[in-house]
């Protein structure tokens, strides 16, 4: 098409003074045609979301457009007044956000929230609005539209809420849909459904879609064209098939390589010596139970049995609510199971002694929440040994050595956590776990919060440490691609039950259970993976 | 940005700090400026401000120097405000910390006690306590502390409830740290910023409470305080309004200053929130 719907010309977005760089994005040039899906890909801090905010006229305070034009159907969005922009928003440009849990008003029924979109633009009568709401809910594939319209947000799952968000964005039939990481917070099977939905709606309505993501798997799944961003600049741009098959820039190649894609995990030898054995582990969470409301019981773990060999990496894979984190927390001793027996190197783990506790350590998910903001990191690492009777000076010296082991400079021991990036913090978290010389490390979603390239580095670190220190690893993740990279054996969990277990390779090549197959099929970019690009165009 | 730079971004807070420094200076200089007892009758009563040189604020119903009373009263008000707040923190912080950290029946027991104090109107309780203990600086401080610790305990408990589930606390627990270390070294430092803000507001409330008690004649009969001055002047409101208004304005300014400083502390300690507010 000769006349693109959205044309961004030499756009530069200036950050407030004192930020770590001058521009959130600079010298951006790209076009988006009608009926096309453009994926803007980048790691955190690449300025990909900021550009979308500029199009929507919702730049955060302090950030301003310094240069360039954003032409939407010939109108420069940067020159519009707020009321003019508001008329455009919703009606001609729709947007979906990342976090479906917080994007809906918890006190309003779903139907009212969708109807509000029409109300805000003064369209349709009340009766017509209600009819449209039902149609929209139906269109985004939600079952029983009438009861959904009457439901409150908390009654819906994450995937259903994201569908409602899409229905709201589509309500006024926008020509451009901006989707900012709409599937990042969702489980992998739900993510696959939402991607299919967006693609189907886009094809049916001939919309243009600007899809912002950090995940090249998602790109392979949905994109017509791709724009790769880094540090606020465009690294590379091209059609999806060309860019994925033959990336020109080293950075793009590194990003694509960082995704395991459909690479199969190699077969690894079985381990003889059993380090950890768990039998019949059960845990029920009880909540509520006041005078007027019944107790709610959720079986987080239901009769779980597993063994872990010395030096083995066991992956626990499952979607949210599968009980995988509870399992890890029971093993390290942060939760007390209701029933079941756990043995570690022959010793029972019930009422474990300090000496036994020391031998099982944990690496946490959120690198920003797992370090105490008011304690220097040297001390954060040393405090475990100190509590276990090591002299303070010796523990601090040991902490410095550990920092070097995890690939950080020894001198950083004197700094506070806020001076580090997410990946560095995760290394510190690993050093802290290593400080007590454990034999088993439970890593609960330890790389999920990190960018792909950082993720690959941290996974490498795990593999190296495991080999050097003869560690065993219990690796809990929702991401099968990550599990494939690092695990010898996999356990697939769902709703507190073990669905399937076996060697990682066997699970990937010959899954026995329907749920495992469904999980594998849902991995974005797997079928049309990076090396099988012929199918991308057909999709 | 440094702590003070963030604090100074809030102009009101800077203004509050200025007033506070002036009041503190007045309190500290009182023995030098007015070495004699503020209770001494030095001139004829009902001198209006500026009527006679040497008595810039005039004299009260008994011929005592109002300016001297004001300066000595500043010392008493600030001291009682500060000490009673410290005592309230000393009661509230440990109780809240224990309740929040351990939860379960300890939490239930401590919170029921806290609620017991919260359900009794605080000023009425303070009056009863001072009346029982007979008015003195000590009993006034005790009464104010006893009525003002429950909000501290509630706040600290809430902070502990959320902070104890942070991953860094769990990591420290896994590393084998004991309860004392977890409470004092891991959680408490992170729970303190709202407590500091609350404390600055509590000093203001304590000054008001002390003034109210003194107004009712329940202050220490041996020390001059702003509340007493207002109380003593209320019968002559029509003839000599300034006798009530001058100490009243002092209370107003001091309490306002403390509130402004409290808000500035809040901005400085929670820079994330401050940026959204401005």
UniProtKB/TrEMBL annotation, chain B:
**PROSITE patterns, from UniProt?**
ABC_TM1
Name the Pfam families on file: BPD_transp_1, OppC_N
Q: Where in the cell is it found?
A: Cell membrane
**Superkingdom of origin:** Bacteria
Return the GO cellular component terms, semicolon-separated: plasma membrane
Keywords, alphabetical: Cell membrane, Membrane, Transmembrane, Transmembrane helix, Transport
Please list the GO biological process terms of this entry.
transmembrane transport
What's its membrane topology?
Answer: Multi-pass membrane protein
Which spans are transmembrane here?
A: 12-34, 74-102, 123-147, 195-219, 240-261
Segments forming domain ABC transmembrane type-1: 74-262
SUPFAM superfamilies per the UniProt record, alphabetical: MetI-like
Q: Does the keyword Transport apply?
A: yes
Q: Which family does it belong to?
A: Belongs to the binding-protein-dependent transport system permease family.
Name of this chain's protein: ABC transporter permease
Which organism does this record belong to? Halotalea alkalilenta
